[in-house]
Amino acid sequence: MTSPLLKLEAVTKGFLQSGRPVQALRDISITVGEGEFVAFVGASGCGKSTLLRLIAGLEAPDTGSVALAGTPVTKPSLACGMIFQDHRLLPWLTVAQNVDLAMETSGLSKTERRERVREHLELVGLGKFAGAFPRQLSGGMAQRAAIARGLIPRPRLLLLDEPFSALDALTRTRLQNELQRIWAHEKTAMVLVTHDIEEAVFLADRIVVLAPHPGRISAIHGVTLPRPRHRDDAGFVALRSALLHGLGGD
Length: 250
Fold this sequence. Notes:
Blueprint: E1 6-17, E2 20-32, E3 37-41, H1 48-56, E4 63-68, E5 71-72, E6 80-83, H2 95-100, H3 110-123, H4 139-151, E7 157-161, H5 169-186, E8 189-194, H6 197-203, E9 206-211, E10 216-222, H7 234-246
């Protein structure tokens, strides 16, 4: 049996809030396979973003363990990329320069880096905007650049922290379509946290429902709908409705 790419075992994490201990996550155990797309959904306060920070090596669990490709996660690494709610592009650099920043420690030559930037900007539909500055991009285009930056080191795992939540509904839908296409092309394992149930159903192979206070796994749903997915298909609508009902959304 193939070992999982990502493995969390009995992960618990707490913080001090106004001097009082608060448990953010309790006893989280789950695996993610190579090339798998897993979405975590739940209400605010269920620890979704904390979970991503633990996987990325930005925080350490109080108890339990996080391992990526069989190696304990103790710090950030190029094997794990992350895309945030806002694009975090540096305004004084061009799109190409912002994407290239992610390869500073890659050991590649300037020529190799330049070619990889070109490939990834083409992948996200920004090939003609390499020389543009962030202020010249729409919100959706800037987030495409952030996706290119996250993918360019060729991480084995890409973490997505509500990457489309700040965008308008039409742009969000378009970028969800783009992310589905990019995932199918790259086959990079992805872990998404989102409030958007429809987004999770559209993108994920599995949906993990987190209950809040403290965050803990309450259900895991496999998504067997064929790809590419269509939001008006009966199976899609039924799964979305079931998840909403389970979260108290109707």
